[in-house]
Amino acid sequence: MLQKLKNHKELIGYAAMMAILMLLLRWFEFRFLILEHQIELYIGLIALFFLLFGIWAANKITKPKEKTIIVEKEIRIISNSDFILNETELLERKISKRELEVLTLMAEGLSNQEIAERLFVSLNTIKTHSARLFEKLEVKRRTQAIETAKKLQLLPPTLG
Hints:
This protein is an all-alpha fold. It has two domains: 2-62; 80-151, Arc Repressor Mutant, subunit A (Orthogonal Bundle), CATH 1.10.10.10. The protein is built from eight helices and no strands. The protein has helices at 2-7, 9-36, 38-62, 87-93, 97-107, 112-119, 123-137, 142-151. The protein starts with a helix and ends in a 9-residue tail after the last helix.
């Protein structure tokens, strides 16, 4: 094996010199490329910096600043069979049977239009019943009316 290497010593030397020359040329070419395109490289590096900075800033600005708050609320569940309508409260507040029916349908989640269609009356009639209910229950919104009606035992607690 050593004998073969000695025979090709001159060839191996030339190959090594060519490899060194090739590496040297590549290094000069790289240096020339860097020196020739120096401004473009600086501009590219600055652009890359601002791109990364922009992405970071956008993530900071658009990051939602919400906190999750857990509210624990006691819910009493009473079956509909145990529910007894508070007749005295109905009479005291002068709520008609039709208004109670509208309130029940509100608690089921129906819109004014859907309530009007189900009761075969006009939309304005339902709006009038709703306004009177809000006055009689001393509330401003449907959800408040339903909650108040449940507290006064005008609606079953499981409804809505």
